[in-house]
Amino acid sequence: MSKKEKSLVIVESPAKSKTIKKILGDGYQIEASYGHIRNLPAKDSKTDNLGFDVNNNFEPKFEIIPGKKAVVKKLNDLAQKFDNIYIASDPDREGEAIAWHVKEVLKVPEEKIKRIEFNEITPKAVKYSVEHPRMINMDMVQAQQTRQILDKLVGFKLSPVLWKQMGNYNLSAGRVQSVALRMICEREDEIEAFVPQEYWSIHADLAKDGKVFEAEVSKYKNTPVEKTIKNEEEAQKIVDYLNNSDFEVSKVTNKTIKRKPTAPFITSTLQRAASSKLGFGVQKTMQVAQKLYEGIELESGAVGLITYMRTDSVRVSDDAVNMAKDFILNNYGEKYYPETPNIYHKAKQNVQDAHEAIRPSYPERTPESIKQYLDNDQYKLYKLIWDKFMSSQMSNAEIANKSIEITAGDYTLKSGTSKVTFDGFLKLYNDAEDEKQDDAKIPDLEKGDKVECKKITPKQHFTQPPPRYNEASLVKALEEYGIGRPSTYATIITVIQTRKYVEKKDKALYPTILGRTVAKQLVTQFSDIMDYKFTAGMEEKLDKIAEKKAVWNKVLKDFYDPFMEEVNNVMKTAQRVNIETKITCPNCGKPMVVRTSKFGTQFLGCSGYPECKTIMSMNALQESDEEEKIEEKCEEKCEKCGAEMTFKDGPYGKYMECTSCHFRKPYHKSTGVTCPKCQKGEIVQRKSKRGTVFYGCNKYPECDFVLWNEPTGEVCPECGSLLVKKVLKSGDTIVCSKCQKRYE
Question: Residue 236: what are its φ and ψ, rounded to 5°?
Fold first, then answer.
């Protein structure tokens, strides 16, 4: 490129602009499309209100999003003034589709427009992409459009079935969200159907040379006894038998195992690790990761700290492997680097776009070295990503396991220890629970040694039901079934909660009575759409379209005909469904059912209507809930005297008061969302003097950012502002806090 030439680089998010501008210099102007600029029209009589023509090979008809007309005009005006236009949207299907839409609206010669992509915002990656532009990948674009059409088709055709059957126009169905809801409801069914089974375990305190250690009964005449001792009577018989037996060591096994590090993060594993280790929700994890990817202001200016965070590939570039090798050798020594580099990338089904795993862009930038430039959440997540990646490149850990079997008549007892003899990758990151380092508690024993029995203790247990899903375990389940993609998990979880299908209590996801009814109706009437394998199979077909192994409109045709036949049959026979509750009408004794007013408000009404017109608030349903109420506990200590704090209710909302010195401080419920204005505070719920709830930065008065609705943690793809939950007469929805665009 001539030095006199000027280039325009179009990115999705303005947050990247500073970082990329710093890398490319004055010859380049960076502008943002603010996400998608065109979409399928909301209404179009010629295309059955869907925005695509099913009678013409599903040809879509795109139009500029109303709020984006000014953006498109600006991009077009700028494009006329530049010699080269580089479209640098994100490196995934959505990004490829955005690139194509931008190209379509720019009124300049096509040869001026080039597509570039980079997995990390580093000088090497960005400059390489500019030097090696490519054509837009229309196979990826068609895969994205097929997904878009499928989702709209399912949503627009299934939702009216629910409206007709349940009389609630705020209900919605979705190709992936409804299957996720089914998972949560089926888990609740399992929990309710679960019958606990009693069982006992027998433990012995044994001693040798003054050292006491514990062993557990494991076998009876070489047959495992785990969970076979059914009651206290059986347990006591074994205790009596052992109290009259001699204990002798029958087997000692020493074994050193090598434990391998696991792969660096992909989107789903990052979400799960951030949930279990940091307590982050899925939305919060993606929001913080997005900022780390787009750029943080360091001493040298804006720097992208991690690679692209929406990926399901564990591949790591050769450059990153070499950088990690140098760092490990220089800082930990040769013992901590394997003889050959650890490679995790293998051919795998359902991997969309073989990008890199999530890793630090500059491994030499340790979390501690840049901590001063990061807020608390950014530091925690960056450290998690850095530790995980660096550990993935390190040597195996070595674990010394000792297993001891002790014979007492017909019974065998087992004891064991596990000790890390070389930490290897565990120096930085441990996926599992902490290793037990209790080797010193067990004396040196050899086969034939006699040990003294100090005490026999029977312990009662009950089998436990499967746990409810939380956000992290739901993501794991969706991934295992092959349902959805990394970029969709956060949205899926948000939508099913916004629709009141699911409630989150103490991190667990509980289906509401509405959600369970919706799931039951959909599973009963649309078994294919709600089938896990069918949904995963559709994801595979989208992958095949992107890989040029399937034709997009044929995939849609094969889906459309049987789907519409099923929808039409159900609509012909659809009957009104009542959502019955456990509450009985105080006037006539009939069950109360959930109803919805014409304004979208839910209430309880008597199933005997119109003969009985009794109605009740939905609060009655919560009050009658037989499940144990989860109470919010105050974990804080008094900053004055250190005593326990407790919650109190005041005229301006909840506050905390010391149980000893009665020191008070306001309590602001956290939303878990970082303030977009100062990037250091957290948005919390507040109350004005008039009692109005609002949401503001907890760094006030240093930062005066406020919202009048609760933020979801996601950002608007149109303008980049926070999305908020809004209660309207037509029902709850998600809207942009700035441009007010609604999202399903």
Answer: -65, -35
Q: What is the pLDDT of residue 686?
A: 78
Q: Which residue reads 């895969």 in tokens?
A: 143
Contact 596, 608 (CB under 8 A): no
DSSP 8-state symbol, 6: -
Question: Angle at the Cα of 473 (from 467 to 474), degrees rounded to 5?
Answer: 105
Distance of CA 92 to the CA centre of its chain: 18
Angle at 566 between CA 558 and CA 538, to 5 degrees: 40
Residue type, 646: T
Report residue 624's pLDDT band, with 50, 70 and 90 as the boundaries.
low
Alpha-carbon distance of 584 to 22, in angstroms, equals: 67
* Token code pair at residue 293: 């990817």
Angle at 337 between CA 332 and CA 343, to 5 degrees: 140
Residue 626 has pLDDT above 80, yes or no: no
Write b or e for each residue in 509-532: b if 16 or more Cβ atoms lie within 10 A of its Cβ, otherwise e.
Answer: bbbbbbbbbbbebbbebbeebbeb
Q: What is the pTM of this model?
A: 0.76
Taking the C-alpha atoms of residue 205 and residue 216, their distance in angstroms, rounded to an integer, is 9
From edge to edge, which strands make up the β-sheet containing 84-87?
A: 28-32, 7-11, 84-87, 113-115
664 Cβ contact list (under 8 Å, min separation 6): 648, 655, 656, 657, 658
3-state helix, strand, coil in the chain (%, to 5): 35, 25, 40
pLDDT tens column, 189-246: 998 888 788 899 999 999 998 899 999 999 999 999 999 999 989 999 999 999 999 9
Question: Who wins on pLDDT, 694 or 138?
Answer: 138
Structure-token pair, residue 600: 């979208």
**Pick from 262, 274, 272: nearest CA to 384:** 274
Pairing of strands 706-707, 670-674: unpaired
What count of residues does the chain have? 744
Give the residue carrying structure tokens 């010391």. Answer: 658
Q: Is 308 a catalytic residue?
A: yes
Number of H helices, E strands in the chain: 17, 34
Q: Which residues pair with 147 in a beta bridge?
A: none
597 pLDDT above the threshold of 80? no
State CA 195 to chain mean position distance: 31
Among 52, 67, 56, smallest CA distance to 148 is for: 52
Residue found under tokens 């090696």: 132
Summarised one tens digit per residue, pLDDT across range 392-429 is 999 999 999 999 999 999 999 999 988 899 999 999 99
Q: CA–CA separation, 48 vs 40, rounded Å?
A: 12
Neighbour count for residue 148 (Cβ, 10 Å): 20
Rounded CA separation 592/609 (Å) = 10
Query: Domains, the chain, ranges and CATH?
Result: 7-136 (3.40.50.140), 144-194+468-573 (1.10.460.10), 198-260+397-462 (2.70.20.10), 267-392 (1.10.290.10), 579-623 (no CATH), 679-743 (no CATH)
Angle at 586 between CA 583 and CA 589, to 5 degrees: 70
Query: Which structure tokens are listed for 328?
Result: 């490990």
Annotated catalytic residue within 34, 308, 362, 429: 308
pLDDT at residue 730 in the model: 56
